[in-house]
Amino acid sequence: MACSRAMVAIVGLVIAGLLFPAASSSMRPDQLITMTTDGQYHSTHPVVTIADGLTADYHDVSCPDLRGIVRTAVVEALQGDITIAADLLRMFFHDCFPQGCDASILLLGTPWSEMRMPPNLSLDKRRKVAFLMEDIRAKVHKACGPTVSCADIMALATHDAVVASGGKPYHVPLGRLDSSQPAPRRFVEQLPPPTFSIDQLIGAFSSRSLDEKDLVVLSGAHTIGKARCATFSDRFTSADSGDFVRRLQDNCTTDVNRRQDLDVTTPEKFDNKYYINLKEGKGVLTSDVQLLLNESTRAYVNDFADNEWWFWNQFGTSMSKMGMLQGPQGNVGRIRRHCY
Ligand code: HEM
């Protein structure tokens, strides 16, 4: 048994290295943001910044039915498959982080598509999500003409998926343009891997103008969804792992393809149990558990565990902020006539 556990851990670490290259390699020197061996990001130019000029009422005149069309389609899709909510939420993060929220992640058709890059290979329902976004775009453009970007549709759909899972409504600034090209691989590979330490996580988020509170509250997205054993098998190598980690490891030994709930208490509900679990030693990913190892991030974990309303409120604020990330050229692009 001990031997098969070690095998699971080793195989997991190899797979994790392939899936999350930022964990195992330094970034190339031609990048604007570089990561040094201490895991800190050093930015010579702000690559991704918070945009201004987006407003919640951007489409109110040109497309008054927009929100209703998106909400109806998302609710219908989730009735067929609730797991789409988690994939959509994760995809929104993976779209925004590399070069701003420009729906570049939905561009499936090219060999250099972001979906073919390591951090995104595990987005299980990625095609389903891309097809859903295209389906909604077709409905919206039919009703209003080509006035709304796939990026805005994705931001609204993500909001609706959070609300449908039990979260609270938040402000969704609109007016984004779509990218014509996938993000460069070197930016996609800056998505933080699950093996990052707290200092590395703080550094990764601050390279995108996101602070420690944003890091802790956005990690609360792990109140829904699942993770494959390979993404947390680094935890099995620690000699002092407790009962919870041993249980995770036993489950993975029995079934290496297992997908483990990230919130072990209420996996399909968008609530604050993720933080309560963390405090009870039941965090799944290393990056989740690391949130307890810094004074400031630990204080936020405690706040959100103690007060669900505060979590919902701050989650909405940080989602709006992340949703306004834009690349070095600013909010440039076009309204795509096809989302993927
Ligand atoms: C703090 C840094 C983060 C790291 C290191 C991280 C890492 C991961 C990993 C490794 C998984 C499991 C993937 C798999 O097994 O295929 C996952 C799942 C997930 N992540 Fe994160 N994540 C982070 C932040 C975020 C943020 C900011 C969001 C959204 C706001 C998010 C939303 C999700 C969701 C919803 C899932 C479940 C996906 C599903 O069930 O299909 N994560 N994350």
TrEMBL record:
Positions bound to substrate: 192
Cellular component, GO annotation: extracellular region; plant-type cell wall
GO BP terms, alphabetized: hydrogen peroxide catabolic process; response to oxidative stress; response to stress
Keyword Cell division set for record: no
Protein residues bound to heme b: 222
Site (Transition state stabilizer): 90
Keyword set, alphabetical order: Calcium, Disulfide bond, Glycoprotein, Heme, Hydrogen peroxide, Iron, Metal-binding, Oxidoreductase, Peroxidase, Pyrrolidone carboxylic acid, Secreted, Signal
GO molecular function: heme binding; lactoperoxidase activity; metal ion binding; peroxidase activity
Cofactor: Ca(2+); heme b
Enzyme class: oxidoreductase
Residues that bind Ca(2+) 2: 223, 263, 266, 271
Disulphide connectivity of cysteines: 63-144, 96-101, 150-339, 229-252
InterPro entries on file: Haem_peroxidase (IPR002016), Haem_peroxidase_sf (IPR010255), Peroxidase_pln (IPR000823), Peroxidases_AS (IPR019794), Peroxidases_heam-ligand_BS (IPR019793), Secretory_peroxidase (IPR033905)
Location of the active site: 94
Signal peptide positions on this chain: 1-25
EC number, as in UniProt: 1.11.1.7
Binding site for Ca(2+) 1: 95, 100, 102, 104, 114
Domain Plant heme peroxidase family profile: 53-340
The family this protein is said to belong to: Belongs to the peroxidase family. Ascorbate peroxidase subfamily. Belongs to the peroxidase family. Classical plant (class III) peroxidase subfamily.
Purpose: Involved in defense response to powdery meldew fungus. Removal of H(2)O(2), oxidation of toxic reductants, biosynthesis and degradation of lignin, suberization, auxin catabolism, response to environmental stresses such as wounding, pathogen attack and oxidative stress.
Name assigned to this protein: Peroxidase
